[in-house]
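Run folding on both entries below.
>entry_1
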Amino acid sequence: MATDKLETRPTTLGDLRQSRWDGARVAQRSVREEMRENLLEKLARKDALFPGVIGYEETVIPQLVNAILSRHHIILLGLRGQAKSRILRSLVGLLDDEIPVIAGCEINDNPYAPLCRACRDRLAEQGDRTAIAWLPRELRYVEKLATPDVTIADIIGDVDPIRAARGGLDLSNELTIHYGLLPRANRGIFAMNELPDLAGKIQVGLFNIMQEGDVQIKGYPVRLKLDVALVFSANPEDYTARGKIITPLKDRIGSEIRTHYPAEVAQGMAITAQEAWIRRHPDGRLLIPDFIQEVVEQIAFTARESKHIDRRSGVSQRLPISCLENVVSSAERRAVLGGERTIVPRPSDVYAAMPSITGKLELEYEGELKGGDVIATALIQEALGRVFAARVGGTPIRETVHWFDQGGAVKVADTTPTAEALRYFQKVPGLVDATVILGVPENADPALTVSACEFILEGLHVQQKIDRTEQRGYTGSPRAERKTPREEQQNLPAGAKRRHFN
């Protein structure tokens, strides 16, 4: 709803009555009706409904739209990292720019129909001289994370003995109430995350407010006909394990909407690129090859299919986000150590990002026996293999494989500067030429060429066309020549891991 400009905005109830604001409409239209009307306008204009939410265009968003048009209270059910909180917070965009409230009211009372005793007394005393304030949409959203220690006082309110003493009031007087989060969300949206973790008696308070509009505070019945759109989120695993949603509350939630992980790798890559902190070099120094981004995203997809990982817990979309950030940081470290301007991640940087992977995996018993590092390494290798098969496929690289089988060797560390690594890779027949398959042009930045070369060698290893050992690195065959004494004596920078292609 449009409002007057700041200088002409009504400041008293009398001014408000004489302004273009429709008093009857303001008094009668609920928050959910307001959201419905604004959503219909957005649909008619074909506006973006939930900016930044990717992959739900054909699934979650249509269900969410239907729920809002039906004026329902809503719960989003989904595993961790499925943008549930982001969706809830984006609902603020369906509210009016601002609404009039009685100035100083704790629960944003409607000037035409105040709820709290203080505002009713004030309106009876001052009439049209009652001061009006304007509440922006951003302040009409209240969010609370449900935990077992949350009390009814936190959500609904409690008697404030200090307020009673200062005003000389009896504790049973409504003016002594200190309102909780839910009343303070009046005429707005109240979001509760992880609803099953909320104690049952608090859930009872929620549905009582939703249905009857009353609650007892310290044995004193208070009638609060709050105007609130209630939205919740819950993890289906928590739904059946750590806690539950009591039946009467579940019955009063109009729509239950299931979220999900990205269905396609391209969707996941778009989400990761949007959320990850990778825009740290606006001068264009950072170049992230698309095959590296795809490998990072494939790690999450591979993990969600792995029998070693608890599928009920899920693999959060935060895994590829954190992983990509670590990958970029590893490449950044190498560039700084080598005094290079261009920053280009390599496959070795994906292995360096393992700390951002292991902490996000809930392993099954067999996975626990193997260990998080072993599982993470296997996920990276499988992701590399999938991307290599899709990008390179059956393209013959026989010349390169044959060279390794004949005892050829390339020794590259994760901190090897670009120019040095490129010289090594140029010695391998057909390797640099094969980078064209990955979309790397002949005149590409040398750092990009190096990354593509290493990716091809990693892919050949995953396909078991070249071998790799911790002692000798990558080998073409058991007949491959061992390192010469001079090679054995070569030292790498402290902390660097030697990567051998033999």
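>entry_2
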Amino acid sequence: MNAIATIEPVVLPLAMVDGARVELLCVVPDGKPREVVYWLPAMGVPAKHYLPLAAALAARGVAVALHEWRGIGSSSLRAGRHCNWGYHELLEIDLPAGMAAMRAHWPQARPWLGGHSLGGQLACLYASLRPAEMAGIVLVASGAPYWRRFRHGALVGFACVLAPVLAALLGHLPGRRIGFGGNEARGVAADWARSGRRGRYAAAGMATDFEHRLAALEMPLLALRLRDDWLGPAASLDWLLGKLPHALRRHELVTPDDLGGQPADHFSWMKTPDAIAVRIAGWIAAHDTALAAMHRPDP
């Protein structure tokens, strides 16, 4: 990691309605920020690993709140046979609590929702549930896990069948051991695998028609694809963006040249995130200018 990884965030402790506890990491720019990004990590990645990205955005005047997934990092819970959850808890308990804390911490700032990999998918699902809570969505190295949209689709499809079976047998998905995500709850593994097998989003315990809600979503969306990202190939991102026909989409490709020679893959960009931050901050600023022009009184 580069030097900006050492930045000390403001830590906001959160207590969920079901007793779960977690820390929200907030990175503050100089002065009062006009914009704030609520950032959702990839599956199994602790929030602290996005501090370099948060610092790079803060250097450009954009505040950042880093969400911590249930069961990861500072979370008081760990997935196991007697401790389980799925997208339902992530979308209807944890994210509303974190978003509320962010708004209370920066009441004057316009909120944006961003995410990496699975975080990007869940950002879209959350936005479809509560579109009034954010000005737009940012996706980095994200895309739908639908097995037919990958070069080695049969292997991805097999993983989507195996993951929930393995999680049911062991009480959780041992992501650390198998090299995929963190130690994930059975419910998260099942919800993720369902979208991978069927190409459609649904969550156990939620009657929500996500496909209908995503199709109706109208807001700005920036999608940054990493050129060499086999976990988020173009076809996977296109499948996800296809669910959002009314979003005001901007789709950009990030190459190794943009990252100072670092591989443009699923995770390496996190070590040198400045180019990603430049694009995000520039896109937000452009929308800020457009909104200001729309609300400027006629001469």
